[in-house]
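EI: anyone free to look at a 136-residue chain?
SC: sure, send it
EI:
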Amino acid sequence: MSIALEVFGDRWSLLLVRDMMVRGLRTFKEFSESGEGIATNVLSDRLEKLEAAGIVARDADNTDGRRVNYRLTERGIDLAPVMLELLIWGAKHEHAGLPCSTIAKMAKNREAVLAEVRRRWRKGDTTPLLPRPGAE
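SC: here you go
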């Protein structure tokens, strides 16, 4: 566990992985405007660390070569079961920004949720899996 936490175990890294995985965020600007309140220097540092760890990769944007898009690697998408369990645990034990019915459906259909996350990852589909808090 200590090895895994060394790679992705701080709050910001996990939130960035979550945002790529279920919210479809890809750019530095999207991450910085996601409502989490991450400072740009911290954001830059965490993206660099996640890239160095092989959890995310950077690609030049197809429409604007100056812009960078971040995406989860296979190593990153393998965190999906962990992220799902953390989401369910957090919603069960703390106030969450998602309706209880959404979390209940996810908890009952873990395999289907994980299959959909992987399908979207394989296809490069950035359609959000979960709504942003307050957007229900």
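EI: The CA atoms of residues 58 and 70 lie 5 Å apart.
SC: 👍
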